[in-house]
Structure formats: structure tokens, C-alpha cells
């Protein structure tokens, strides 16, 4: 089948989705216990998008993420211990505790990075693609973003320039139906946001965002086009946000019945059903147990790590020749 | 030595850096086929091609964000924002993106881009095309801001800015483009960011300025000389980082300071200069620092009205006399 991942790739996506789910659950609990700082934006139920969309990329390719980026980080191969330590503000965190859960980056993995200004990752990836085009380095830039950010002006500016200059950028819309507390029906004039991308002459596809295999196949077609110099692509992945906007969300605006319906279509279960015939339940269950234990260990290690010590930043000082 | 216009000096700097480093590219509105509305990029499209000299749509917000991320991924973008008055459109990319990443990502990324723009009044361009918004960018830790006045400094600082590993906001002035000055094209002519220049030495009062205000300060010094007052004119050249050493050394000599900035007074760049002097040179002062700025109001269009709000030599000379009174 064209653009189908290998079974090994599918198993790896399954493993990463489980890892991500365990991270979300663990930090949900730690947050309730008051052991984290600030809000945490969970992506339970949306893992198939970030993990399916990034599975065909290399470390040389770039992605930009959002405030809800854990699946994107994990999909791009960023180390879960480093992520966890960063979320916990530890010295050993990927960014030494300077960034926090919304702004994690790992340049060595091409993940640059989380971005909590809604929409800002979209022109960022477009600029990376511009760099790629000028350097002729064959790299692709991808931006994962939500339906909320699709209402910004920079979304349109970026689509236009990406199409105009045939930039090697892939736009992956993780449509989870909510921009903070307001449903997408009350934020946008089009049901399918990809219609707007199509109006710029960008090829688009709409897929089931809870099916990692479907996400992979649609996105990899766009990645290949972009890599060949044929310009941007846009994949709209329909999914749903199970948890609230963040751990500080009081809730009350999402219909419990709708949430229950979406939970029946758990992306991990969908992936399991797709794989079980090929690899068997025993192996998949073993992967689940091993991965869950790995995540638990990583978070426990991170919890035991020290907090960073403060040092003033000298290169941002206002005066030359001397520090603050 | 060649006698060059300011715009020509910038053009030469761009050509020199693009020739030296293939990762340098230019983009912005009307910079390609037309060569820029102030002709700074004239001839560069023909020389370097449309990949590296790119006319863009009118999309300042995304363009600035793209400069930041392109710089993070191996190129050295030089973005032209046609008027400083459009900087508010660039601000998210500057305030929330460019200024934070090197620090929050633990020095694993750098962003060597230059944002060139021009501001300032005196050309009858009205309230949306005449402002000096220096303070909007100079306020932000993580950005560097330079504003040269001579063609030699324009070339030298632009070359230094393009080579610098960190973001530089390069402020030009619409009334400077046609001014001529000596430029030594036989030397690299690099000018270090963060170093002030003594335009003329003096003993009675120090006048600190940047960009076109340096020219007004020089004229003020001539007026003051007629009254027997010896003014030292310092061209700060760099608004951030600021050459505090040069400021302190000058005030130690004159014990009086006038700060000049074409932006607004309240919370303005001149206010910061004044506070900096208070913090670091208070003991050397014989009188309060005098500020010469735009009054806190929109810039009007008509010649008589616009001239009334802009700082000029007479206002600077009056401020110097006030601090000496």
C-alpha cells in the first residue's frame, strides 16, 4: 500500500502513543497533587495526530508545536525523561527548567519547539521551510497546530507564502474542536478548515485524527511532495480533546456524552486493533507493560532530580562591556 | 575613500555580506524588482537572484516570525520592514519569539537575523509613517538595536549586524538616505555593536543622540559655541547594548547631560538614558539631565505642525543652556 508504514513503524507509533498517554495521566495526577507548576495542557485522545504525523520525519526535519505538544515531542523522538524533568522544572530538564511544559525544544531532534502564542508555530515552520529552500538541504518543516490557531491572521499569511514560494512545509491541523472553551463552530465560518488552505492552492486531505495509520499515510504523501520541491501540503486531522483546556480548566462546557463517544474511539485501541492480527496480543500487551514502566521510571527519576540554580543571563544585558 | 550616500553604503554592505556568505538572504516588501522604496537593495536581485532577494506580500507579522525561525535553521535573513511605524506588526515575533529562545532553550539555538527598518519625521509622511519607535525594540532583552548616522557607520554596523549571532534591529532614518559621507571601501569597515562614537569633544555639556538626531545635536553644538559653550556630542550608535562606559566618561568631563531621542517622552528611550545616567553617574552631575524628545502626541502632517513637534538644534541648544543655567 502506498505510503503505508512498516509493521515495525506501526508498532513504534503504538509504543509512543502509550508512552504519551502515560505521561499525560501521570502529570494529570501530579498536577492534582500540587507537585507541578503552572497549567498543563493534556493531549489524551489526540496522540495519533502528533505521533502519526511525525513518524516519517528524520531528526534533520523540523517541527513546531503548540502549548499542547507532548505527543509532538514524543513523536519527534524527544527523550521522555528530559521532557518530564523539564515539566517538573528540574536542572536535568531538556531546557534546564527555563522553558516549562509549553515551550520545550530539542534542536538535536529537530523539535523547535513548543509555542504558547497560539498560531505562532505556523509562520515559524514556514520560515524554517524558507531556510530549507534557500539552503537546498532537502529538509522538510512541519507545523502541528489546532483549530483555535487557524483563526489567526498569521495562519493566512503563512499559507499564502508557503503556496506562493512552494516551500517545503507540511501543515498538520489537529482539530480537537475547542479553542480554549469555545467550540470551533463558534470560532470559524468553515466546518472544514482545510477548505481555506485549498483556497491558497495547497493540496489538502481530511483524515480521522484518531487513526494514526490514516494520519501517517496522508501526512507522508504531503511530506514526500514537499521534499521533492512540489510545495506545501495540508492535512486536517479530526480528533477531540478529552480533558479540559488545561489542568486549571474548571470545565462544564463539553458534553459528557460527546466525550464518552470519542473515548470509544481511543486512538490507542484503534492502533491495537490494526496491529493485533499481525503481531499478536501478547506482544502488544508486553509493549504496554514495558512502556508504562519506562515512563513511570523516567518520571520518578526526574522527580528525584534537583532544581536548577539561578544565574543571571549576561548576553541580554542592556549595557555593553559589562554585565547587569 | 569614497563619498557615498547612506543608502549606497547600506547597499554596499548588503552586497559585501551576500558575496561573503551564501546563507545571507534578503526579503521584504518591494525590495527585489524595485530595489526597495529607499533603493537600499538596488541591483541585488539581478546580482543574487530571486531566492536570495525576495519580494514579499504585505505580511509583516508572518515575515518577522519567519526571519526568526529561518535564522534558527541555518540562514542569515535580512528582513526589511518598510517603516518603523509597522514594527507593532512584528512585535510578537520579536517579544515572544526572537527574544526568548536562546535563553529558554539553554543556548542550543541562536537567531542571527537583521530586521532593517526606517523611522523618523520631517518628510511630511503623516502620523503612520513618521515615528521613531526605538523604545519598542530597545526595551526587549535579547534584541540588539543600532541606529547609525554616518554612511561609514551604516556600512560597518550593517555588516557587523549580519555577522552577529544574535538578532539585531537596524534602525535607519528616511532623511539620512541621501546624506553623503566618507566611506573607506578598502577596509572591511566593521563597527562593533555597543560602541559609541565621539562626534566632537567638548567640556561643558554632553549631548547624547542616535541616528538623525546626531546631526541636530551637531548643529546645536555650533549654536552653543557661538555663546561660548563647549558641547561634547556623543553618537551612541547602539541603543542596546548601550555604551555605558562612554556615557560615564563624557559626563565625568562635562558634569552636564542632554539626551535626545526622536520618540515620545513618556516611557521613552530618552527617559531610559536619563535613568541610566542617574543610576550610574549621579555623583558626576551638577544639574538634572535634560531630555529633548517628541511631545506626547501623534505626529501631525502639515509642515508647520510637524516641525513644531520634532526635536531640532534649537531645542537641543535650549536644553543644554537649561542644564547649565
UniProtKB/TrEMBL annotation, chain A:
Highest taxon of the lineage: Bacteria
Name of a matching Pfam family: E1_dh
InterPro entries documented for this protein: DH_E1, PDH_E1_Alpha_Subunit, THDP-binding
Classification via CDD domains: TPP_E1_PDC_ADC_BCADC
Domain Dehydrogenase E1 component: 15-309
Cofactors named for this entry: thiamine diphosphate
This protein's record includes keyword Oxidoreductase: yes
Recorded catalytic activity of this chain's protein: N(6)-[(R)-lipoyl]-L-lysyl-[protein] + pyruvate + H(+) = N(6)-[(R)-S(8)-acetyldihydrolipoyl]-L-lysyl-[protein] + CO2
Keywords attached to this entry: Oxidoreductase, Thiamine pyrophosphate
Keyword Coiled coil set for record: no
Record function comment: The pyruvate dehydrogenase complex catalyzes the overall conversion of pyruvate to acetyl-CoA and CO(2). It contains multiple copies of three enzymatic components: pyruvate dehydrogenase (E1), dihydrolipoamide acetyltransferase (E2) and lipoamide dehydrogenase (E3).
UniProt protein name: Thiamine pyrophosphate-dependent dehydrogenase E1 component subunit alpha
UniProt organism field: Pseudogemmobacter lacusdianii
UniProtKB/TrEMBL annotation, chain B:
Cofactor(s) it depends on: thiamine diphosphate
Gene3D superfamilies the record matches: 3.40.50.920, 3.40.50.970
Record's keyword terms, sorted: Oxidoreductase, Thiamine pyrophosphate
Molecular function per GO: oxidoreductase activity
Domain of life: Bacteria
Transmembrane segments: none
Annotated CDD domains: TPP_PYR_E1-PDHc-beta_like
SMART domains: Transket_pyr (SM00861)
InterPro entries in the record: THDP-binding, Transketo_C/PFOR_II, Transketolase-like_Pyr-bd, Transketolase_C
Keyword Cytoplasm: no
Short name of any one Pfam family annotated for the protein: Transketolase_C
Listed EC numbers: 1.2.4.-
NCBIfam families: PRK09212.1 (NF006667)
Protein name according to UniProt: Alpha-ketoacid dehydrogenase subunit beta
Organism listed in the record: Pseudogemmobacter lacusdianii
